Amino acid sequence: MCGIVAYLGQREAYPILINGLKRLEYRGYDSAGVALMQNEAIVLHKCKGKVADLEELCRDKDVSSHLGIAHTRWATHGEPNDKNAHPHLSENGKLALIHNGIVENYLVLRKELVRRGYQLVSDTDTEVVVHLIEDIYKNEQVDLAEAVRLALVGVVGTYALAIISAENPNQLIVAKRGSPLLIGIGDNEYFIGSDGAPIVEYTKNVIYLQEGELAILSLGQDIVIKNSKNKAQRPYLEKLEISLEQLEKGNFEHYMLKEIFEQPNAIKDSMRGRINTRKDMVSLGGIIKYEEKMLNAKRFIIAACGTSWHAGLVGEYLFESLVRVPVEVEYASEFRYRNPIINEDDVLIVISQSGETADTLAAVELAKAKGATVIGICNVVGSTMARNTHAGSYTHAGPEIGVASTKAFSAQITVLSLMALNLAHKKGKIPLSQYHRLISDLEAIPDKIQEILMQNDYIKEIAKFVAQTSNAIYMGRGVNFPVALEGALKLKEISYIHAEGYPAAEMKHGPIALIDEAMPVIVLATEQETYEKVVSNIQEVRARKGKIISVVSKGDTLVKEMSDYAIEIPLTEELLTPLLSCVPLQLLAYHVALLRGCDVDKPRNLAKSVSVE
Asked: DSSP letter at 77?
């Protein structure tokens, strides 16, 4: 991991590459580098740190070139340092390669390359690939593209890579398996990116490489795409679905704050065209072909990671309450390794913001191999998940640049709500009056979020107390329990405060031992079936001098009087409460992180798209 940019054409490559790396900074990284073709030789610049450090390194250097590759690395094999940064050179210095993914058999390959006399200078798994390509290129008397293809046949794992050769100064070769890669098509020029962010400024015409494909890009020639068996493939040109404006911060200080405030529109866009207001009906076009399978499912399995897993937990409440079918929510990272029982009448719903989460994609393949129907929920058009699932629904949240997910979470819950409502109505599991009421309340959610956002300054004041602590506890019951988990994750991710989420009733079974006068306890105490139980749980915390920060329904007086701080949210149907209760927790985490001097958009050690296991 984490970000790939490349350019071949008539323009100066370096500014395009640096700008592209900046566009990909949101993915998370710890080093950066660039390789430029100059006078039929490859010139390499790379360093530990930020893209700004790379710029400083190159400030007084000749960076003129019309062909180059660039990379931001998130360390997997080998610590973050200059030698482990990408690009990596072949031993003769004539090949340069950048790579996202994991080479699982790199130790075997490394041992064989050393036996053949190659000297590897880094600790990375990637470096073995460029030496392997060099070895085949020298010894098998094939062209470079065929050397790359043959080398990749022997690579076990995932990759998106770009490679240039000093012997082919007008050619760029890229390949993909299990990690995203886009080719932007210009006027006799090519732009490469891990996603559309580095490309959209220059062209909206793109090709999404398919699994196992390799593309040969040469100036003045048509693009050539081959599969892993060396058979030619027809390029399929598509339009990028993002705009440059969506990638800018606008008037906001950080992307995360912008995306929190974008949630009303993200939810509207995720509902647009899916609710027929005149007929009061829900319909999701992306799943119509497999709707019958979903209606007849004996069980739903939801698999996801991180924030998307929390959205899946909310989905469990929605589907079991409305559709009345058993639901299991699985960490995708564990799902494939515990020999799960999957039947042909099961439906697996996978959730991923990027649609490139490696563990979740592995769950897709496992379920398909067992004959189950797989439905995807993701935010990125053309992603691997969108292509590999049987059917699915996009969230239409727009690009999410902040590493800590916000609007993607609420958009995922919106789509899960629509799915549950659609199935429940068609199965006759809920009264028509409840169906219409839930639709009406769902349509009102964006305006209600706007009300919550108006409390931003008040939440900033609450953050001053939380920022002084080292630990925090989040509590919720029922459908708000997943929101407690998500609130704790947000605080951990961007402020580096240790936080845990619990079902409120579980406090007395151990965690209450942590409570003292310095411990902030954030309680989701909205109007719901278990409200009185939550009140009792708050009393237990108060008796031990814990500090209560509550999220309550508008008009509440009981919990507000028991709280040190209380944040009001508008009333809504209980099952839809997470769409509102998550917002103040996002704002709280954001302001706490700012007060602690943390990098809100790019928290340490994290990557936006986790495309390796």
From this structure: S
- Half-sphere exposure (CA, 13 Å, Cβ side) for 496? 12
Residue ranges covered by each domain of the chain: 2-246, 249-452, 455-600
CB atoms within 10 A of CB 85: 27
What mean pLDDT, rounded, does the chain reach? 90
- Rounded to whole angstroms, the Cα distance separating 126 from 119 reads 14
**Residue 542 carries which DSSP code?**
H
* CA distances for 191 relative to 7, 26, 174, 195, 562, angstroms: 5, 19, 11, 11, 58
Annotated catalytic, 239? Answer: no
Residues present in the chain in total: 613
Set 2, 58, 305, 598: catalytic member: 2
For residue 124, give the 3-state DSSP assignment: coil
Q: Write the pLDDT tens digit of every residue in 180-238.
A: 889 999 999 999 998 888 898 899 999 988 888 999 999 989 899 998 888 988 888 88
Give me 238's structure tokens: 């598509």
Around 487, how many Cα atoms within 13 Å sit in the side-chain half-sphere? 31
Question: Residue 72 carries which DSSP code?
Answer: E
Residue 608 is predicted with a pLDDT of 59
pLDDT at position 277 is 64
Distance in angstroms (rounded) separating the CA atoms of residues 531 and 88: 58
What tokens appear for 338 in the block?
Answer: 């515990």
DSSP-assigned beta bridge partners for residue 191: 7, 184
Q: Has 608 been annotated as catalytic? A: yes
Whole-angstrom Cα distance, residue 7 to residue 25? 18
Q: Is 131 helix (H, G, I), strand (E, B) or coil?
A: helix
Closest residue by Cα to residue 66 from 206, 191, 216: 191
CA distances (Å), origin 151, targets 96, 120, 131: 15, 17, 9
**Partners of 207 in beta bridges:** 183
Can you give the pLDDT at residue 540?
A: 84
User: For residue 355, what are the contacts with CB-CB under 8 A and spacing of at least 6?
Assistant: 376, 378, 379, 380, 383, 384, 385, 386
pLDDT, average across residues 33-60: 92
User: How far apart, in whole angstroms, are the C-alpha atoms of residue 313 and residue 458?
Assistant: 29
The dotted CATH code for 455-600 is 3.40.50.10490
> CA 224 to CA 218: how far, in whole Å?
9
> Is the distance from CB of 51 to CB of 11 less than 8 angstroms?
no
The token duo for 528 is 């719901």
**In the block, which residue shows the tokens 């649609």?**
355
Domain 249-452, CATH among 3.40.50.2300, 3.40.50.20, 3.40.50.10490, 3.40.50.10890:
3.40.50.10490
Which of the two residues, 26 and 503, has the higher pLDDT score? 503
Domain with residues 2-246, CATH architecture = 4-Layer Sandwich (3.60)
Counting Cα atoms < 13 Å in the Cβ hemisphere of 154 gives 20
Active-site residue identified among 22, 258, 492, 608? 608
Q: Which amino acid is at 295?
A: L
Lowest mean pLDDT among 73-82, 218-227, 551-560: 73-82
CB distance 379 to 351 below 8 Å: no
Q: Can you read off the two tokens belonging to residue 551? A: 């999220």
Q: 455-600: same fold as 2-246? A: no
Q: Could you tell me which of 326, 336, 330, 334 has the C-alpha nearest to residue 303?
A: 330
Return the structure tokens found at 404. Answer: 């800590």
Axis-axis angle for helices 306-318, 481-495 (nearest 10):
170
